[in-house]
Amino acid sequence: MNRTAGIVVIGNEILSGKVTDTNSPFLARELRKIGVDVRRVDVIPDELDDIAGTVRDFRERFDLVFTSGGVGPTHDDVTIEGIARAFGRRVVREPGLEQKLRDFYKHKVNEARLKMSEVPEGAELIYGGSLAFPTIQVENVYILPGIPEILEAKFLSIRERFAADPFHLRIVYTREGEGAIAQFLNDTLRSFPALLLGSYPKIGNPEYVVKLTLESKDLDYVDRALAHLLRILPEGCVVKTESF
Predict the structure, then answer these.
(1) Least packed by Cβ within 10 Å: which of 71, 91, 119, 193?
(2) Which pLDDT score, from 0 to 100, does residue 133 have?
(3) Is 50 left (phi over 0), alpha (psi -120 to 50) or beta?
(4) How far apart are the first and last CA of the chain?
(5) What DSSP element (H or E) covers 198?
């Protein structure tokens, strides 16, 4: 089974450089581990039309969509409304979530905090792990917060529901630069056209010059591709290999 995903990072603070996005790299890594192929990451502002349009596009193109940010109590937290608009739904206050907020904040509860009980109509609430507050799901869209610590905990609590056939990864570290080994990479791809082959130079590393990655969901395929590449690379070129 091959599943694809798109990630939508929402926030003016990301686009202005005030905050560095760590959520999309985290999600991409974790999804890769369980065999989900992330095909696109978009960073968009806190604007309803952008959110609705991007989510509408992603939900049709990818099996899974994850959004990050814009679900807090302030004026610029408009992700819920934008996603509701993408599905042509109303925004409603979810009674169970509202009660949790009232119980949590007690006498300090106010309308701003109760805003966090709003969901697109018909949304599913996913509870997992030790987290008090759920992840909101609308069909194939999963709405996550922007705070990295909370996003990571929420995603890890539901990660296994997304598991697909895993990628098998082989890594080769070389002493030669890309110009010297490009012909051997091209030869390997001609012999193994379905291979996911990456080449990443490293400047200033005393051990290796280029890191090569070979990936496939077919274990035998990636191992045969690795054997082929190791056989044709120049003698003494390979520093070490790793398998994951």
Answers:
(1) 193
(2) 87
(3) alpha
(4) 19
(5) strand 196-201
